């Protein structure tokens, strides 16, 4: 696994030249967009002044709707222009910067900015009980670390709710999960399923929360572990107590505990069939370049690296490259 020191050297030698190549393109676009926006404001101002001048004495006319309509007509091309550039720029950035960073972490990994974790894999993890009505996935990384097949990508899943009827009918979208979704081959056929979920109840309600955890509807029984620090952050549910304890090695619990301390965002894990699934909430849209600010920012790039290292580091923590088991079902 690459260290912070080697990443610093890689950033200076390999990433900075690529990012700086794209900075000229980004600055040109920014100037064009702001100039076009200024011209649009001027055109809109001329329309408003002209209409007011021509019909100034006609008090029966209500021009508010006309002004809004003209404003929308002017805004639509800007949105299209911006989105079109953003997509093209992001694709170039991802192919030249993010891909290099992923290969730096491990040459056995491939990267596709426009592909994502499949919905069927997402559902197979059983991490989230509610079935999504809308599902989006991008930035797929897949391949092998050592001898272990892995894949992960950004995912956003949502469900829909409606209220009212007729003209008052309203539709709302609610996020189920938004972040990084990871699967690795554990190279072992589990006889049962084990789930590790964020522990909100015990941390906020103490003993009462712990009792409520044991009543978690739709999950297997609560598994009691002998690591109080780990249990501050996570609750474990398993169909088999012995197998759950066997899966949760000391090193994995320590890493997850450190992760829980470092980040305020939750992490979900399941062991289903012979795979481990990890869902890490991250509200930011990772790997996306900035348009109106410079991308020569080491802190941002290191944040990506840190996330990638955390996800791929799970292979080491679970010692998945120790091929003592047989069989693989990961597709």
What does this structure look like?
- The protein has 331 residues and is of the alpha+beta class.
- It is 47% helix and 22% strand.
- It has ten helices and nine strands.
- Strands 1-2-3-4-9-8-5-7-6 form a nine-stranded antiparallel beta sheet.
- A hairpin with a 2-residue loop joins strand 2 and strand 3.
- The longest helix is centred in the first third of the chain and has 51 residues, at 4-54.
- The model has no long low-confidence stretch (mean pLDDT 82).
Short synopsis of the structure:
47% of the residues lie in helices and 22% in strands. It has 331 residues and is of the alpha+beta class.
Tell me the distance between the termini: 25 Å
The largest pleated sheet is described as: 9 strands, antiparallel
Mean pLDDT: 82
Which class do the helix and strand fractions yield? alpha+beta
User: Low-confidence segments, ≥5 residues, pLDDT <50?
Assistant: none
SSE pattern, N- to C-terminal? HHEHEEEEHHEHEHHEEHH
Gyration radius over CA: 25 Å
Number of helices: 10
Overall geometry: globular
Strand-residue fraction?
15-25%
What percentage of residues falls in helices of 4 or more residues? 40-55%
Strand order of the largest sheet: 1-2-3-4-9-8-5-7-6
Total strand count, please? 9
What are the key terms here?
single chain; alpha+beta; 22% strand; nine-stranded antiparallel beta sheet; globular; 47% helix; 331 residues
Helix-strand blueprint:
Layout lengths: L3 H51 L9 H42 L3 E4 L6 H6 L9 E12 L2 E16 L6 E16 L8 E5 L2 H5 L1 H7 L8 E2 L4 H4 L2 E5 L2 H7 L2 H13 L4 E6 L2 E7 L16 H15 L1 H4 L14
Antiparallel strand pairs: 1-2, 2-3, 3-4, 4-9, 5-7, 5-8, 6-7, 8-9
Helix pairs in contact: 1-2
């Amino acid at each position: 696994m690459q260290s912070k020191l080697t990443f610093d050297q890689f950033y200076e030698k390999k990433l900075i030249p690529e990012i700086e190549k794209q900075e000229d393109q980004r600055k040109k676009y920014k100037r064009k967009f702001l100039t076009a926006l200024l011209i649009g404001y001027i055109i809109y101002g001329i329309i408003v002044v002209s209409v007011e001048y021509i019909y100034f004495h006609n008090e029966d006319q209500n021009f508010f709707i006309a002004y809004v309509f003209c404003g929308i007509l002017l805004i639509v091309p800007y949105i299209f222009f911006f989105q079109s550039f953003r997509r093209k720029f992001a694709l170039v950035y991802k192919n030249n910067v993010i891909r290099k960073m992923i290969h730096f972490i491990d040459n056995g990994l491939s990267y596709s900015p426009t592909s994502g974790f499949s919905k069927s894999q997402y559902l197979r993890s059983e991490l989230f009980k509610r079935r999504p009505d809308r599902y989006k996935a991008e930035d797929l990384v897949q391949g092998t670390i050592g001898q272990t097949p892995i894949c992960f990508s950004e995912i956003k899943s949502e469900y829909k709710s409606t209220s009212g009827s007729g003209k008052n009918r309203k539709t709302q979208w609610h996020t189920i999960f938004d972040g990084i979704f990871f699967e690795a081959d554990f190279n072992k056929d589990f006889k049962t399923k084990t789930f590790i979920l964020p522990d909100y109840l015990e941390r906020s309600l103490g003993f009462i929360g712990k009792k409520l955890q044991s009543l978690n509807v739709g999950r297997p029984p609560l598994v009691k572990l002998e690591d109080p620090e780990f249990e501050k952050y996570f609750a474990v549910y398993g169909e088999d107590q012995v197998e759950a304890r066997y899966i949760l090695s000391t090193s994995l619990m320590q890493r997850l505990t450190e992760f829980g301390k470092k980040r305020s965002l939750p992490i979900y894990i399941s062991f289903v069939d012979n795979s481990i699934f990890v869902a890490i909430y991250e509200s930011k849209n990772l790997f996306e370049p900035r348009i109106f600010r410079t991308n020569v920012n080491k802190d941002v790039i290191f944040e990506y690296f840190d996330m990638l290292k955390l996800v791929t580091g799970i292979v080491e923590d679970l010692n998945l490259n120790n091929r003592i088991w047989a069989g693989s079902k990961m597709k």
